[in-house]
Design a protein that fits this description.
alpha/beta; TIM Barrel; 43% helix; LLM class F420-dependent oxidoreductase; Lucif-like_OxRdatse_MSMEG_4141; oxidoreductase activity, acting on paired donors, with incorporation or reduction of molecular oxygen; Luciferase-like_dom
Length: 277
């Protein structure tokens, strides 16, 4: 794998998993399968989880998805970034987000707070091209295009990917997350996919607002989510069907899709059946 940087360094397909949910052995296997990036979900308070996976692999990119601006100090994060980039040149990218109003007592204007955080990253030398923003709405998407490499939207559909590309323009990096369940029975797949969508995301204002922006109604969002909503947010079927649903984001304007595997004891067992592009 090369050490190229920029929007094409991620490959077309990556993996999204909780920052404590990927072992070094799994990371090595993910790299062997040809995936370009491992996105570490959740809100780690340091970049230590990224270092662990970088040490376990030889070339794959590692990115946070996300580093939360409310529980981290941007100057400290910039110093950690510099250390990682010295030890693993070009391989780590910082994904930054504002988290959720419901989970953060100090929550203030998300846009203004993100601008302030980015200002500190700039002052401490963290390159614009080595960070991405968690972005859903138009203002944050445009900020992602202006102040970072691009956007890493979560819990979205290809329709949102198309919308995000329109908002950001052609030059910005776009890497949506997509949940999958490798299961051909729709009822079983929804039983697996609905709980991690419903709790917490269908109770968080920013995600609900985004879904409504896409045309979903209260009836779609209430009571754990309608079948239609769950089917749109959690791709399911056989490997070919799931791959086609994942790649719909690429057709809609994404550069890269971060795949989150649900319902598997070991995500690499599923990834072996779903080759990276």
């Amino acid at each position: 794998m090369t050490t190229a940087t920029g929007r094409h360094a991620f490959g077309t397909h990556g993996i999204w998993a909780p920052f404590s949910g990927v072992t070094g052995d799994q990371a090595g296997r993910i790299e062997q399968l040809g995936y370009g990036t491992i996105w570490l979900g959740g809100s780690p308070t340091s970049l230590t989880p990224a270092r662990r996976l970088l040490e376990a692999t030889s070339g794959i990119r590692v990115a946070t998805g996300i580093t939360n601006i409310w529980n981290t100090d941007p100057a400290a994060i910039a110093r950690e970034f510099a250390d990682l980039d010295k030890d693993f040149p070009g391989r780590f990218y910082l994904g930054v987000g504002v988290g959720h109003r419901e989970a953060t007592q100090e929550y203030a204007s998300p846009y203004d707070s993100m601008v302030d955080y980015l200002d500190v990253l700039d002052a401490n030398g963290l390159p614009v091209g080595r960070r991405v923003l968690a972005a859903l709405g138009p203002k944050m998407l445009r900020l992602a295009a202006d102040r970072s490499l691009g956007a890493h939207p979560y819990l979205t559909t290809p329709d949102h990917t198309r919308y995000a590309r329109e908002q950001m323009g052609d030059g910005a990096f776009l890497a949506p997350e997509q949940k999958i369940v490798l299961e051909t029975d729709a009822v079983t797949a929804r039983e697996i996919g609905r709980p991690p969508v419903e709790n917490p995301y269908l109770h968080l204002r920013n995600y609900v607002a985004n879904l409504k922006r896409l045309g979903y109604t209260d009836a779609d969002i209430d009571n754990g989510g309608s079948d239609a909503l769950i089917d749109d947010l959690v791709a399911h079927g056989d490997a070919d069907t799931v791959r086609a649903k994942v790649d719909a984001h690429l057709a809609a304007g994404a550069d890269h899709v971060a795949i989150q595997v649900l319902g598997a004891d070991d995500i690499t067992d599923v990834l072996e059946l779903l080759p990276a592009g």
